[in-house]
Write a structure and sequence with these properties.
Chain A: It is an enzyme of class 1 (oxidoreductase). The complex is a heterotrimer. By secondary structure, chain B is α+β, with helices and mostly antiparallel strands. In chain B, 20% of the residues lie in helices and 28% in strands. In chain B, strands 8, 9, 12, 13, 14, 15 and 28 form a seven-stranded mixed sheet that branches. Chain B has a six-stranded mixed sheet with strand order 41-42-43-40-34-44. Classes of the chains: A alpha/beta, B alpha+beta, C mainly beta.
């Protein structure tokens, strides 16, 4: 992989900006890029408390797909997937986007019903989707154990051929570079500690690097969004949880498809270099510690070895955790807030990475126009009052 | 000649025995006690790996867990990829081969046994070097429960094979005595070949114990190959030692270049000469002492370089006594290789001086020691840069954790022993007189170590200065990262991949930080290390899975009648953890034929089903009625004793959660049933409200799911069968009406019989104590009753429009949506009620339960088919809902389905299309009750 | 693997428990009198602090009792029982 000679500058903050985006993760960087590219708003700063894209963007398992059940979810994730398909070219940076397909395995008759339902909904929504029999699953991924003697045998799978993976760091760096080139300031080691207010309006932020004025403020801090909202005086329907993932050492290629099994908590792909990249289930408790509990990894490995007996000899090389902001319906919160000129993009839970370009696009539009982008409208905060949830959690039970 | 680099004597190998192993297809000999790396060096094998991208040859570099190069594929025994040769104990018949940074997964399953165990202790000591042994001993003599874990085959740490003395005797005598004393104490456990890999919250540590790998092909199959320890420790002493780091220079990757203490270690611990003619290059006293060890072992020292210029000290005198003069202010500026790529000469120079070429076959380099702060970091500690140590050392203390010895930057043996003893004593919370550490013959230090990362013309040759040997990452890559604007060590790690390989950058991680600090013009401490994450060394997936494989992946729940179902040839369905009969095919029958026959039996004569899996909760207390009124949407306080009622439960969000029949057994005693999958969740739910919101309600809830076995006796013939089985029970419709419960003796068994129906037919659910379940089943079956499974149950209930929570509902469905508005009381409060009046939840056009009749009566719609008005519309095609249940009905002689459709029965009679896999079937919306709408069959 | 201080059973491994989220979210006395927004606050808008957090645990595989603890959401340390 040859990276460009220059990626982004490390400027000191100016006195003020038209838009201050809080959080230089994938979503924050994409938002800044599309603010500049689509809306000509280049007087933008992205503030990052640590190192750029060092939060969930550096910690996810890089799966990209759009095969969500509900119309609103399918629309925004499919919008995102279409952007992914042109992103290397758009950003002039090889982000190692690989449309190797994603399987979601079914292990029970309810899983089968849910899978068929989702495949049909996807197809009618214009999202590519197929239902595969166990034999078809075996043909696609020969190392999967499809024996019907398994404790929870594979009874079939949904398959999205256009889904896949990309290299998370490169995606962040590509957006950062493109945003920087359009004049956006990327400011690292700059933690937001408070907000400047003028009546009901917010006029800027207090940071560890001084006061920065802002005409508009866009929250984009994933697991930390609740903390920011709390200092603005409103609450969000979020709980921040550790979500663990791990990699193996480099191994000769054995798996060229992404495989997910929500029922037994396995999702795995083999990255370009050769390491197996796997995610675990969400740890039960609220936590900002970027670490989870060991038993979660153990049960995940048990399921993995059962499904992929060939994995038994692989080694866990490194484990880590991100902080996922989970909403009650496992769908994002994207749009306006009770505070004027403050916008929110959070609640992506385990699905944030795949949404990166789509969320950035839609959020930038929402910020630029001061009203929800049509794709964002179903994800407004007021759905928790009206009851119009987009319940990917209860209905589809497929996360990540 | 066999083992040409084996010394005549010395080392901790068993020279009396010889084993044979293969490496890269060639057979070699070694001795028990060798590691693969010492055995390869003894045999003069210099090339043990290749760079993954450059293909450059690489040799053994370290001696323990820090090894960056010698990762091999083991093909003998169960086989394993990416095994560190420096910790792989050689055995007779070992077959291994070199790799280029990437392992291979063998296709056949690993049937080795992997176990797990759990332990508690007062004090866990990690590392059985001098400091760890002293700590364990000091803690153990107080009577504390102590676990001492060490990754090597025997305790001793860096004393192993060394020449130090303690209390005037060889240090290994003290090690052996201490080990023996510890082993003799009842509360002490010494775990060797055990690597503590992770430090988790609450002093929870995980360790990997390698139990049989060193036995090789002779390993007994009944002993677990590895065991995963889960240790909850009161206090933890980290005596994890330190990792040697190199100095980098152009062409620093050639076989023959290794860490200095590692080279000396091979000579003394294994009796192997790592080379015959050596250059030693260092930046601290330890490198010079390694030179002493090498020359005493018989290695010719061609040059000893120190980047520092120090006044003469003890080590200089020791070297001069051996005829060696230290070249002060000198460093390595380059290396040469022979045709195979192996080191043939070293170029050395004083800063800005002219380079001199020195032929040699070993370059031993040491830039200092990095305390192994990995577990300390995992525990929440933050390493800080110490100028005195030229290393990151533990910073602020972590509560109940002590770092001692080299892990704390205490490299002096006497100090490490004292520090270890003190920590062990404190960790055991002991009082009184602490045991004294043994007396040492420590040498005095000469000068402080230098923070030296690079020597030679590294700027000009940046692409041959390797900062990560296993990833082939170079100084050029680091410079490019900085040039691209990166200022964080995390970014540089990701950009260059340095530190991400199987060795996790143990030798050069800090070096990379040091280089980065130089490029950025920052102090090393300001750049900081990347985060150390578990595991310390890799753990196999198979060990993490342990015994949770095959049927033990998840417990399998079976009813008391399970063996009869098996004998009857039932095909089973997983429902939660339960195994439930799905259908009972007779010879020649498929699912469809079997279900058709089972349905006919239930509708036309008499059939039976094992319903033991239904969740059953016993509620007792004077306030149960009031409690159930709050929990269920409908009222239960008015239920009379002996009566049953169907109830619906919502979560607070108003969505249907569970349903089932509840009976009042006595004024203060209710028997509640749940769906099979929700039993535990419902019990939790009830207890949560009872304990956290309504503790004043006098109600107790107990799961009795496993205490009762139950058989549903279904069909027009069921009354007659029951009357024969329970002659004392008046089964007449008048005496035993619908929705009542009776205690009775059925087939001689005390039973509780419910007259309820999930099929629309006359039916009874006979509950008996679980241990009578099999007898009851046999008795009912003996009456000539046809058994049926869950599929037939689904057909029968769907014909009647009865929903299954979780199939016809999905967490977005209210009771009204599910057609259960009749069961929702408006005259009382219940959980979830408030949610039902929210603007969206109260919408009239919500998706509601309907029936569907396919235009083609032979087409059984796919469950999950989506409903549309116009199947040919361009995408996105608006969807009205989906098919939730769909079957062929023997009774109707056609297919039918249940569905959730926006607007529900306002569409009655309209035709939609059910789309599945691109095929669209016309369907007509109907009432969801297809069979016996007037309910005439319920009473037989 | 947290060590959860059950007030009845003593410290036990996390796997014996079910997590219950924020403590002290009282069920409204009369939900019918609440506005939709007030009801949403009860249902969905819970505290999610970075720091000390009063939360509930349920000892499912032990004494089956709910209890409150105060835990730090960064260090995961439990406040010493009072």
């Amino acid at each position: 992989m040859t990276h460009p000679d220059f990626l982004w500058a490390d400027p000191s903050p100016k006195r003020g900006y038209d838009v201050v985006v809080i959080g230089a993760g994938g979503h924050g960087l994409a938002t800044a890029y599309y603010l500049a590219r689509n809306h000509g708003i280049t007087n933008v700063a992205v503030l990052e408390r640590g190192w750029l894209a060092g939060g969930n963007m550096a910690r996810n398992t890089t799966i990209i797909r759009s095969n969500y059940l509900w119309d609103a979810s399918a629309a925004i994730y499919e919008h995102s997937l279409k952007l992914w398909e042109g992103l290397s070219e758009e950003l002039d940076y090889d982000i190692l986007f690989s449309q190797r397909g994603v399987l979601n395995l079914a292990h029970s008759l309810p899983d089968v019903r849910e899978g068929v339902r989702r495949v049909n909904a996807n197809r009618l929504n214009g999202v590519d989707a197929e239902w595969l029999t166990p034999a078809e699953v075996k043909k696609l991924v020969p190392i999967i154990n499809t024996s019907q003697e398994l404790r929870y045998p594979v009874l079939g799978a949904t398959f999205q051929p256009r889904a896949g993976i990309a290299k998370h760091d490169y995606v962040a760096w590509a957006f950062a570079r493109a945003a920087h080139r359009l004049g956006v300031h990327l400011i690292q080691n700059c933690e937001v500690t408070g907000f400047l207010r003028d009546g009901d309006r917010v006029t800027g932020v207090e940071t560890s690097r001084g006061t920065i004025e802002a005409a508009r403020v866009a929250l984009c801090a994933a697991g930390h969004t609740s903390v920011l909202a709390a200092s603005l005086g409103f609450r969000l329907p979020l709980a921040s949880h550790p979500l663990q993932a791990l990699v193996s050492e480099l191994l000769e290629q054995v798996l060229d498809t992404v495989v997910m099994s929500n029922a037994i908590h396995v999702y795995v792909s083999q990255a370009h270099k050769g390491e197996l990249v796997m995610g675990a289930g969400v740890d039960a408790y609220n936590g900002y510690g970027q670490r989870g509990s060991f038993h979660v990894i153990e049960s995940q490995m048990a399921a993995a070895v059962e499904l992929f007996p060939i994995f038994a000899r692989a080694h866990v090389l490194r484990t880590w955790a991100g902080i996922v902001d989970v909403s009650p319906d496992a769908s994002p919160v994207l749009g306006l807030t009770p505070v004027e000129d403050v916008f929110v993009n959070c609640g992506w839970g385990t699905g944030g990475f795949k949404a990166t370009p789509g969320a950035g696009w839609v959020y930038a539009d929402t910020i630029a126009h001061g009203r929800p982008h049509p794709l964002a409208a179903p994800f407004a905060l007021d759905r928790f009052t009206t009851g119009a949830l987009v319940d990917e959690h209860g209905a589809a039970a497929v996360a990540h | 000649m066999s083992q040409p680099f084996r010394r005549v004597d010395g080392g901790r190998v068993d020279r009396g025995r010889t084993v044979t192993f293969q490496f890269d297809g060639t057979a070699y000999e070694a001795h028990p006690g060798d590691t693969l790396s010492s055995a390869l060096l003894a045999n003069g094998v210099r090339i043990v790996a290749r760079g993954p991208y450059t293909g450059r040859p690489r040799g053994v570099y370290g001696i323990a867990a820090e090894e960056p190069n010698a990762f091999v594929q083991v093909d003998s025994g169960p086989g394993e990829p990416m095994v560190r040769a420096t910790t792989l104990e050689v055995y007779d018949g070992l077959v291994a081969r070199s790799l280029a940074g990437k392992g291979e997964l063998r296709a056949e399953p690993d049937d080795s046994r992997y176990d797990k165990t759990w332990a508690h202790c007062d004090v866990l000591v990690v590392g059985a070097g001098p400091a760890g042994l002293a700590a364990a001993h000091a803690a153990a003599v107080t009577g504390a429960r102590v676990i001492l874990a060490d990754e090597r085959p025997s305790p001793g740490g860096d004393l192993l094979g060394g020449r130090a003395h303690l209390d005037g005797r060889p240090a290994m005598d003290w090690v052996a005595d201490t080990h023996a004393r510890l082993a003799a104490l009842p509360e002490v456990r010494v775990l060797t070949r055990t690597t503590v890999t992770g430090f988790y919250d609450g002093n929870f540590l995980v360790a990997v114990q390698r139990r049989t790998e060193h036995l090789g092909l002779a390993a007994p199959a009944h002993v677990a190959r590895q065991r995963l320890w889960h240790i909850r420790a009161g206090r933890v002493v980290l005596a994890t030692g330190a990792h040697e780091r190199p100095i980098l220079f152009p062409d620093n990757d050639r076989p023959g270049i290794m860490l200095a203490a590692a080279a000396a270690g091979y000579a003394w611990r294994y009796g192997v000469l790592p080379g015959r003619r050596a250059v030693v290059a260092g930046a601290h006293d330890g490198a010079l002492w390694a030179a002493v060890e090498l020359v005493d072992a018989g290695v010719e020292l061609a040059a000893v370089l120190d980047v520092r210029s120090l006044p003469e000290g003890q080590v200089h005198r020791a070297l001069r006594d051996r005829g060696v003069v230290v070249s002060a202010g000198h460093g390595v500026v380059g290396t040469d290789a022979d045709a195979s790529g192996v080191l043939s000469a070293v170029w050395i120079a004083r800063t800005d001086g002219e380079a001199r070429r020195i032929p040699c076959d070993l370059l031993a380099t040491s830039g200092g020691w990095n305390p192994a702060v990995h577990l300390y970091s995992q525990a929440g500690g933050r390493p800080v840069w110490s100028l005195d140590h030229a290393a990151f050392v533990p910073g602020d203390p972590v509560p109940s954790v002590w770092c001692v010895g080299a892990a704390a930057g205490t490299f002096d043996l006497a100090d490490a022993l004292a520090e270890g003893g003190e920590a062990g004593w404190q960790a055991a919370a002991a009082t009184g007189e602490e045991p004294l550490p043994p007396a040492t013959d420590s040498v005095s230090g000469t000068g402080a170590p230098a923070a030296c990362w690079l020597t030679g013309p590294v700027d000009e040759r940046a692409d041959s200065v390797f900062v990560d040997l296993q990833r082939d990452a170079t100084l050029r890559d680091v410079r490019r990262a900085v040039g691209a604007g990166m200022v964080s060590s995390e970014h540089v790690k990701r950009f260059t991949t340095a530190g991400t390989a199987a060795d996790q950058g143990r030798t050069t991680g800090v070096t990379t930080v040091g280089i980065l600090a130089g490029l950025l013009g920052l102090p090393v401490g300001a750049v900081g290390t990347t985060t150390y994450r578990p595991p310390y060394t890799p753990i196999s997936f198979g060990l993490l899975a342990g015994r949770d494989r095959g049927r033990l992946l998840d417990p399998e729940r079976r009813t008391p009648m399970h063996e009869r179902h098996e004998a009857a040839g039932a095909v089973f369905e997983d429902v939660g953890q339960w195994k439930r009969p799905w259908y009972y095919p007779r010879p020649g029958e498929d699912l469809h034929r079997a279900v058709e026959r089972e349905c006919r039996a239930a509708r036309e004569s008499v059939a039976m089903m094992d319903v033991s899996t239904l969740g059953k909760i016993e509620l007792r207390g004077p306030d149960v009625g009031e409690f159930l009124d709050r929990v269920y949407t409908n009222r239960f306080s008015t239920l009379r004793v002996g009566q049953c009622r169907y109830g619906v439960m919502c979560l607070a969000d108003g969505m249907l959660f569970d349903d089932g029949v509840t009976a009042r057994i006595a004024p203060d005693h209710y028997h509640l049933t749940t769906t099979t999958g929700n039993a535990a969740k419902v019990l939790d739910w009830l207890e949560e409200w009872l304990q956290t919101e309504w503790p004043s309600l006098r109600v107790s809830a107990t799961s009795v799911t496993d205490q009762w076995a139950a058989v549903a006796l279904v069909g027009p013939g069921s009354r007659e069968v029951l009357s024969r089985l329970a002659p004392a029970l008046d089964v007449s419709a008048a005496a035993f009406p619908f929705l009542t419960v009776r205690d009775a003796t059925v087939a001689g068994i005390p039973a509780r019989v419910f007259r309820i129906s999930f099929t629309g037919e006359l039916s009874y659910e006979i509950n008996v104590p679980a241990w009578y379940g099999l007898a009851l089943w046999d008795a009912v079956a003996a009456a000539g009753v046809t058994p049926y499974g869950t599929e037939t149950m689904h057909v029968l209930r769907a014909e009647k429009g009865f929903i299954v929570a979780g199939q016809d509902t999905d967490g977005t469905v209210t009771p009204h949506d599910a057609g259960l508005g009749w069961a929702v009381s408006t005259a009382k409060h219940f959980i979830g009620q408030r949610s039902l009046t929210r603007t969206d939840t109260a919408r009239a056009d919500r998706k509601r339960l309907v029936g569907l009749l396919p235009a083609d009566p032979l087409v059984v719609l796919a469950e999950g088919a989506q409903l549309v008005v116009d199947a040919d519309a361009p995408t996105p095609v608006p969807m009205l809902g989906h098919v939730t249940s769909s079957y062929h009905s023997a009774a109707l002689g056609r297919s039918f389905a249940l569905a959730l459709v926006a607007g529900g029965l306002t569409h009655r009679g309209e035709t939609f299309y059910a789309v599945d896999s691109g095929r669209a079937h016309p369907v007509v919306v109907t009432d969801p009750v297809f069979y016996d709408a007037e309910g005439a069959r319920r009473d037989g | 693997m947290l060590s959860v201080p059950c007030p009845w059973c003593g410290p036990r491994d996390e796997t014996e428990f079910r997590y219950g989220g924020q403590a002290h979210v009282a069920y409204p006395d009369d939900p019918a009198t609440l506005s939709d927004a007030e009801w949403a606050e009860y249902l969905f808008m819970h505290d999610n602090p970075k720091g000390w957090f009063a939360e509930r645990w349920f000892h499912t595989a032990g004494c089956r009792r709910w209890f409150d603890v105060v835990r730090h959401t960064v260090t995961y340390a439990f406040e010493a029982p009072r």
